[in-house]
Design brief:
The complex is a heterodimer.
Chain A lengths: L2 H8 L11 H5 L10 H10 L2 H5 L12 H5 L6 H13 L12 H4 L6 H11 L2
Helix pairs in contact in A: 1-6, 3-6
Chain B lengths: L1 E5 L9 H13 L3 E4 L21 H11 L4 E4 L2 H16 L1 H11 L10 E4 H9 L1 H6 L8 E4 L9 H4 L9 H8 L3 E2 L18 H17 L4 E4 L2 H11 L4 E4 H9 L4
Parallel strand pairs in B: 1-2, 1-3, 3-4, 5-6, 5-7, 7-8
Helix pairs in contact in B: 1-11, 2-3, 3-4, 9-10
Classes of the chains: A mainly alpha, B alpha/beta.
């Protein structure tokens, strides 16, 4: 995949970013990210995709869309993070969650919504 | 009146109370929630990649069914609402998705986003009316309640169009109608940790605690939500610090409806 493939997958205009940093300032997972939401946008614009593909942030993004909501330029940093996560998890054997991971963390109250959402985010 | 209703997986199992209570409350106001035929799980998370089509089809099926059964699709789970509403927006505006989904599902006539997706809270506000609800309260709440919205009802606001995304008030307005006092606090639209509670429970715990700590600091006796995942995360991580309830439980109490 080249830069254009990633731009298409992210489906948001990263060139519009004016580097104000509001997305990262608002991110509830900021402290848990090695590469921050605003960097996902600028790295993609600059074509530094290799760095993004090894980022641990794709597992701690909450998809809460706070970054998208705050962006004054209509850019969607969460979509860039999801594009990278999709690229990683779509490779065979690279899922972030396996069926064997589930039983130990199940309790009587775990809602189906949690399992379905986690699978959709971490597995392809 | 009858309205097409999409219950979703969680409301048929772990959050069955939310479903049953909502039906009883709606009945009180003359509304019958009718499950749509052969509904399938919405997927719980809207996929943002433009080449994700198959993952949107169950939502399109439900939307297309509602189109010819009253034209409205009622949701209650925040995740279902988010997915259905966003997929519906794609089916109105994205020609590629419209074409692929219609071909795949062999829809004739085509579905092009005609159905109106409405959340239960929007139904209470716009169809029932908070004044009507207020007039039927028999046991005012008389306590301080924190309204918690989370993410899925509000964002992205250009599609969800639910309420002011930074300072929503629909739940506070409901609390007032029920005779309670809404608490002003800063974390009402923060994320509870969502699905990371399965891979990173510590992160989810930190996020949930920041919400209940804030609500408590501003005097909340109880916190209400419309989302089964928020309910789970908040209750699991902070249930000993603050009472966590579905908004429907407060309505049952104030309206004097037997559980």
């Amino acid at each position: 995949m080249d830069k254009n493939d990633f731009l298409e997958l992210a489906n948001t205009d990263v060139k519009k970013c004016m580097k104000c940093g509001k997305c990262s300032a608002r991110c509830p997972s900021f402290d848990e990210m090695d590469i921050k939401p605003h960097q996902f946008v600028s790295y993609l614009a600059e074509g530094k995709i290799d760095k993004l593909l090894v980022s641990k942030s794709i597992w701690t993004c909450l998809s809460c869309l706070a970054c998208v909501e705050r962006c004054p330029r209509g850019v969607a940093p969460q979509s860039v993070i999801e594009a990278i996560r999709d690229t990683v998890t779509r490779k065979a054997g690279a899922n972030g969650l396996s069926a064997e991971d589930i039983p130990p963390i199940l309790d009587d109250d775990v809602p189906q919504q949690l399992l379905v959402a986690a699978y959709r985010k971490y597995n392809k | 009146m009858q309205i097409c209703y999409y219950p979703g997986c969680t409301l048929k199992s772990k959050a069955v109370d939310l479903d049953i209570q909502a039906r009883k409350i709606a009945e009180k106001f003359g509304i019958e929630m009718v499950d749509i035929d052969k509904w399938q799980c919405c997927g719980a998370e809207y996929p943002t990649a433009p080449n994700e089509t198959a993952t949107k089809l169950s939502a399109v099926r439900a939307l297309n069914y509602a189109k010819s059964h009253g034209g409205k699709l009622l949701t209650l789970c925040s995740a279902c609402h988010n997915v259905l509403k966003r997929v519906n927006e794609d089916m109105r505006t994205n020609e590629k998705t419209i074409m692929k989904a219609n071909i795949y599902l062999e829809l004739n006539p085509e579905y092009r986003g005609e159905t109106e997706v409405i959340h239960y809270l929007e139904m209470l506000k716009n169809i029932v009316g908070f004044d009507k609800i207020k007039s039927m309260v028999v046991k005012p709440l008389n306590r301080k309640v924190a309204a918690y919205y989370g993410c899925l009802l509000l964002r992205p606001s250009n599609v969800m169009k639910f309420d002011n995304p930074e300072n929503p008030t629909i739940l506070e307005d409901l609390i007032v109608a029920l005779g309670g006092t809404p608490v002003k606090y800063s974390h009402k639209n923060e994320c509870c940790g969502a699905y990371v509670s399965i891979k990173s429970p510590d992160l989810a715990k930190k996020k949930s605690q920041s919400i209940t700590d804030d609500a408590k600091a501003f005097g909340a006796d109880e916190l209400i939500t419309a989302c089964p995942l928020c309910y789970y995360n908040l209750k699991k991580n902070c249930g000993e610090n603050l009472k966590i309830s579905y908004f429907t439980a407060l309505m049952m109490e104030a309206l004097g409806i037997d559980g």
